[in-house]
From TrEMBL:
Keywords: Membrane, Transmembrane, Transmembrane helix. The lineage of its organism: Eukaryota, Fungi, Dikarya, Basidiomycota, Agaricomycotina. It holds the Pfam family Vma12. The chain crosses the membrane at residues 122-140, 152-172. One of its GO terms (biological process) is vacuolar proton-transporting V-type ATPase complex assembly. This is Uncharacterized protein.
Length: 225
């Protein structure tokens, strides 16, 4: 069996961490002091192993470590793992994959709806192209054109319809993207909230609601119930 490779976890060596570790070096046991010495002397490295910080923190909680800290007038709380890791970055030399936020149920439903609409639009466009090409071929045949002219005419009409459908699809897709932009969604939510506040204000002042406001309020109450 091959030897297991242990993943080394490094911690960024910030200024505050260096200031905490430097006065502790002379107090540590010889073996631990030798391990820590390269990280508190010039040239200062960018990172320090997590396991080394953990060993230092564990030693400061031993009876010998507490006595040494009291003798040097150092605070034991400064050497807890929480204090040592405060403000530091885990393995800054590594490139972790970007965080991808999970879609909410509303976003997932809207995405599926948009996909269905796009598929439907593409199918309709394909049927329109085929239908227009066939209709042009049939109409050209009724006028007595030769077969090669019938084919060329039907291909021309199908190409024109295909270009038109592509332009319409691009326009529809761009408008859909604008409607789904975060700014548009925020504006829509703000208008909805303002409309609800206005309805409440009208009711409080005894002003009757219009048909549209009453219908919207009824639909909201039905959804909540």
């Amino acid at each position: 069996m091959g030897a297991k490779t242990e993943t080394v976890l490094n911690i960024s060596l910030k200024t505050h961490l260096l200031e905490i570790l430097t006065p502790l070096t002379p107090l540590l046991p010889s073996e631990l002091a030798i391990q820590l010495s390269p990280y508190v002397s010039d040239p200062i490295p960018q990172t320090v192993p997590y396991s080394l910080l953990q060993s230092v923190s564990q030693w400061t909680r031993t009876p010998a470590g507490l006595v040494a800290l009291q003798t040097a007038s150092l605070e034991p709380q400064s050497y807890s793992m929480i204090a040592l890791l405060a403000g530091s970055v885990t393995s800054p030399e590594r490139k972790f994959p970007a965080y991808i936020r999970a879609k909410s149920p509303e976003e997932a439903a809207a995405l599926k709806k948009a996909e269905r609409q796009a598929i439907t639009s593409l199918i309709n466009a394909l049927l329109s192209i085929i239908g227009s090409g066939f209709a042009a071929w049939w109409a050209a045949g009724q006028t007595g054109w030769k077969n090669e002219w019938q084919v060329l005419f039907s291909l021309f009409i199908a190409a024109v319809v295909a270009i038109s459908e592509a332009v319409l699809y691009l326009i529809w897709d761009s408008r859909r993207s604008q409607d789904r932009s975060p700014r548009k969604l925020k504006v829509s939510a703000k208008r909805r909230d303002e409309g609800e506040v206005l309805d409440v204000s009208r009711i409080e002042h005894g002003i009757p609601l219009g048909l549209r406001q009453r219908a919207r309020r009824t639909a909201t109450n039905d959804a909540m119930s």
